[in-house]
Amino acid sequence: MKKILIPICTIVLISCGNKAEGEANAATDSTKTENAVATNNILDPVSGDFSKPIDPFQLKESMMACYNKEIQLVIYPIPFFDTDKFAQDQAATVMADSKDKTISINFKTLPDIEFTRNTPFVIKCKLKEISIWNDKKELLIIDAELVGEAKNVKTETFNASTFTPAAVYNSKDVLANVLAWNGKQVTIIGDYNGTTTSKRPDGSIMELRADITDAGGNSTVGCNFTEDPAIEAGARGIKISGKTDLVMHYDNPYLNNCQVVK
């Protein structure tokens, strides 16, 4: 969820692709896009291999790997007073001696216990999304259940491609992993599905986005350009490099500062 104030403007949509033609091609051509990497592997943003072009589906699955899945985290709730009780939208941080709210927690059922500052707890929960407000990034957590205080709890090394609901992870490591997608340089390979141009009232371009899909048309990556990339309608197996936007747009990844790779 990205909160951005945008002035009222006129939106001009320019479709450069032919949907009917694309559907016909998909029906007659069952082969995968040439040179595309496998789409069934989650790429960890810290340890993954990004030297090869990524299929749009693989990029989406990788960026969504941590979300809406059960996970156990060590967190440090921030009390309003010296001693406090848990609340919905509970502010928390990822380490002791920090007052910086980096996590917001919504519980299934509110725990009726008191806590003090710098007391670590283990919660079972799901990650929902990253919220950005005035450049402050906050991890939103839902369906949380309090497991107990994190006394002598063994934590595991977090990796987005291998984490399990049975293990306990430091929220600091998980948050760092999620934030590692912010501005990650990647190259995708897929099929061109049209360009959208958004203009301000004075005619200047606010957004110039080319949509690239996987061979099956199941996933789309929005690629933002600063100038018209002049991609041929119906182009297949096109490579585009850019930097990942941390926030998903309608569950689709966006790339910024894009360039067509020849």
Record keyword descriptors for this entry.
262 residues, mainly beta, OB fold (Dihydrolipoamide Acetyltransferase, E2P), 2 domains, five-stranded mixed β-barrel, five-stranded mixed beta barrel, 3 helices, 13 strands, disordered N terminus
Describe the structure in your own words.
With 262 residues, the chain is mainly beta. It has two domains: 19-65 and 182-261, Nucleic acid-binding proteins (OB fold (Dihydrolipoamide Acetyltransferase, E2P), Beta Barrel); 70-179. Helices cover 10% and strands 37% of the residues. It has three helices and 13 strands. It has helices at 19-28, 56-63, 171-179, and strands at 70-77, 83-85, 90-93, 103-107, 114-116, 121-133, 136-149, 168-170, 185-199, 205-213, 220-224, 238-244, 254-261. It has a five-stranded mixed beta barrel with strand order 1-3-4-7-6. Strands 9-10-11-13-12 form a five-stranded mixed beta barrel. A two-stranded antiparallel ribbon has the order 2-5. The two termini are 34 Å apart. The model is unreliable at 1-40 (pLDDT under 50).
